[in-house]
Design goal:
disordered C terminus; alpha+beta
Length: 745
């Protein structure tokens, strides 16, 4: 591996014009494809294997032309103080609004509030339901404008009017904080390298990689039904890993220059050593993201594959375009220790700190590692207890999917949600649709009536509509209004109670009862994600564990890496619960409404954080193993690894945190939550697990940390991540066989 990447790095350095041309051509091609691609259509949210999805599919079969997946809107009216919606003037205004809405070309139907029993008991609030022929993502802008104009005209007439539903669904915006995150990354790079040129290389390559990835996603969005969130998450992860991977290779290049090597040779060795770590770190991220397919939720699978593709592009760019750009930069990228005048220093080199006696003060990484190996047990206990305390809120984790009730109060969707809750009760925002399939029943009408009676007798039910059969008379729908809000535990219990009651009806009449609707779908998604979490953990952690055995040629080091990851991800989930569910620091984070944590958050964090955690494990521990196989004692190897890697890993973690934190300003609650969760997870994993717990455990284990059974050592391929194959005979010493024994140690 190291030898191949070494040759690739030198080739890219020499043929830099050709390499740069290829990447610019790919960026141009992706950009043209994105610009000429049709707009993204319906990003369907199907959940195979769930009862809610089964009922939804049945509705499309038995009620053809009903546009079961069409967009909906609820135009909610509230009368001025002291008036009622049944007053003549207000009634005329509503009627005019309904007539205007019905004229839309994409409108399937509009329900008049006064004929559809859609006026509150106190007469102050009413709503008109609008059904469209196409989904919210497929609605033309003219249709959305007509909806907003009709609402505005009613406002001008003196009514309070808000619009809920998915008809006004907008593409989420990330806000200015994303740019701030990139700016922070730029500052960290400048401080790390002391040079604008060296700092600009990781930023430039990361932006090119993300540009290719996101443009490709945009170009394929319509054909593959990719949602807008897919490109945002790909951008988030692609930026973070793109900057980090380039940072490690540029840092190693500067270290090779400081050893006195020529620039082409230094580029080759940087790609051969740090590039090997980049490849395996990237593989762990790709495994974690592609592994999301285990959950069998198409939307989540597409998000994972799209983000994994962006990570793969980041790896390829780091291995090829970075050495090419280093060739262009020439002497403007200085050796390690030769800071430019930008930071007020201009040293040509840095004395070797490992020489005994009379040497300059060791760097911070060396001093910290020396402290940890002297007090490993205390550091280990402190780190584990601290992460355990942070993980405590995770015990109160409640899962759900965002609805209009989780929108900011500044949005019309949220205000419509609140008005409906005020006029008709909190459960009115999450009606349940019960589908009765009586095709196998001898008395379909009796079956419909039995289901209706069973549901009315259940606790937590406010209203039940009469059965509405299809033309064939073999299927009927019943709408159930709970007395609790959609995301509550009480509503979830009611869904299960209806399904249990349906089982009794089926045993008696042969009619099958299914519960669907957005609320039931959300409940089924949460349960499906919970059930998939353990198999997903086993698959992803298992595959990555095997990969790390090959990389580190050790059993205990990969095991320690996996256990450390579990600590950091649980602590991160605890922080998410504290902020988004309990409301701690919610004002600072821009969280206007607390509530259940997004259902896919735990499994998504497990996937992404595991991949990113292994990044730091690979980058930091490979330097330790490199020192160990070259003859250093275990504790000294830990210190050496920190001496060469701690500064760069710290910079990489700060950059990744800044990029993720930049997405906290998104208008999309899911993106905001993921941005915060990933940022805090990187903090816990990089600074507590990898910087404290890992060296403490390695110090306690000593040589045992690098133990590998001889039979397994012979069976495993030698990927040479340490770059042993790149060392000259003089660097190896007089006995090459001795070095090979060290590698097997």
């Amino acid at each position: 591996m190291a030898t191949f990447l070494y040759k690739l790095g030198r080739l890219a350095f020499r043929r830099r014009h050709f390499v740069a041309l290829i990447w610019v051509a790919l960026l141009t091609l992706a950009g043209v494809g994105a610009a000429s691609a049709p707009p993204a259509g319906n990003s369907s949210f199907s959940i195979p294997g769930t009862e809610a999805q089964k009922a939804f599919d049945l509705l499309e079969q038995r009620f053809p032309g009903a546009s079961a997946d069409g967009a909906t809107a609820r135009v909610v009216f509230k009368a001025p103080s002291g008036e009622k919606m049944t007053d003549a003037d207000n009634k005329a205004t509503v009627q005019k609004t309904v007539d205007e809405l019905a004229d839309g070309s994409e409108v399937a139907s509009v329900a008049d509030p006064y004929t559809g029993n859609a006026v509150s008991k106190d007469g102050t609030i009413a709503y008109a339901s609008v059904k469209y022929d196409v989904s919210g993502m497929e609605l033309e802008e003219s249709t959305k404008d007509a909806l907003e104009d009709a609402a505005q005209q009613a406002r001008d007439a003196g009514l309070t009017v808000e619009v809920g539903g998915d008809a006004l669904q907008a593409v989420p915006e990330t806000g200015a904080t994303e740019v701030i995150g990139i700016a922070v990354a730029a500052v960290v790079l400048v401080i790390t390298f002391g040079s604008l040129v060296a700092a600009g290389l990781p930023l430039l390559t990361a932006l090119i990689g993300v540009g290719i990835g996101v443009s490709s996603i945009t170009a394929l969005a319509s054909a593959l039904e990719l949602g807008s969130t897919t490109s945002i998450l790909a951008m988030m992860i692609g930026l973070a890993v793109g900057i980090d991977y380039a940072l490690f290779i540029v840092s190693r290049y500067r270290a090779e220059l400081a050893e006195g090597r020529e620039r082409e040779e230094a580029a080759g060795r940087a790609v051969g050593t740090a590039g090997s770590a980049v490849v395996f770190a990237g593989l762990t991220v790709v495994i974690a993201l592609v592994g999301l397919a285990v959950v069998n939720i198409p939307m989540l699978t597409k998000m994972g594959i799209a983000a994994a593709g962006t990570v793969a592009i980041a790896v390829l760019i780091a291995l090829t375009m970075i050495p090419a750009l280093l060739g262009y930069a020439g002497r403007r990228v200085k050796p390690a220790g030769a800071k430019g005048k930008l930071l007020g220093r201009s040293r040509k080199g840095e004395p070797k700190q490992e020489e005994p006696g009379g040497q300059p003060k060791a760097n911070l990484g060396t001093r910290w590692a020396s402290f940890v190996v002297r007090r490993p047990l205390a550091v280990l206990l402190l780190g584990v207890i601290g992460l355990g305390a942070a993980a405590v809120p995770a015990a109160s984790l409640e899962l759900g999917l965002p609805d209009d009730g989780s929108q900011p109060t500044s949005t019309t969707q949220r205000r419509a949600y609140d008005l409906l809750s005020e006029g008709f009760g909190p459960g009115f925002n999450g009606p349940l649709m019960v589908v009765v399939d009586a095709k196998g029943s001898d008395a379909p009408k009796d079956a419909f009536t039995d289901v209706e009676k069973q549901i009315k007798d259940l606790d937590g039910v406010v209203a039940v509509t009469p059965p509405a059969p299809n033309k064939g008379g073999d299927t009927a729908t019943i709408t159930v209004i709970p007395d609790s809000k959609p995301s509550s535990v009480q509503t979830e219990d009611l869904v299960h109670a209806i399904r249990d009651a349906g089982g009794d009806v089926e045993a008696k009449t042969g009619a099958e009862t299914l519960v669907t609707g957005s609320t039931a779908m959300n409940i089924d998604v949460s349960e499906k994600l919970n059930d998939a979490l353990v198999p997903y953990l086993v698959l992803v952690v298992g595959l990555a564990f095997l990969l790390l055995i090959v990389v580190f040629r050790s059993i205990l080091v990969p095991l320690k890496a996996a256990l450390g990851f579990l600590l950091s991800v649980m602590a991160a989930l605890g922080a998410v619960v504290a902020v988004f569910q309990w409301g701690w620091l919610s004002g600072l984070m821009g969280v206007e409404e607390t509530g259940p944590v997004m259902s896919m958050m735990p499994i998504f964090m497990v996937g992404v954080v595991f991949g990113l955690a292994m990044d730091y494990e690979v980058f930091l521990v490979t330097r330790m193993r490199e020192a160990f196989v070259h003859g250093e004692k275990p504790n000294q190897a830990v210190v050496t690894g920190f001496k060469h890697g701690a500064r760069v890993v710290t910079a990489a973690a700060v950059i990744m945190m800044a990029v993720f934190a930049g997405f906290i300003g998104s208008s999309e609650s899911m993106v905001k939550m993921i941005g915060f969760g990933l940022a805090i997870a990187v903090f816990f994993d990089a600074f507590v697990v990898r910087m404290a717990i890992v060296p403490a455990v390695l110090a306690l284990l000593g040589k045992k940390a690098w133990w590998l059974p001889k039979w397994l050592d012979r069976a495993l391929p030698n990927v040479d991540v340490e770059g042993e194959g790149l060392r000259t005979a003089g660097e190896r010493g007089s006995d090459p066989d001795e070095d090979r024994e060290l590698v097997r140690a």
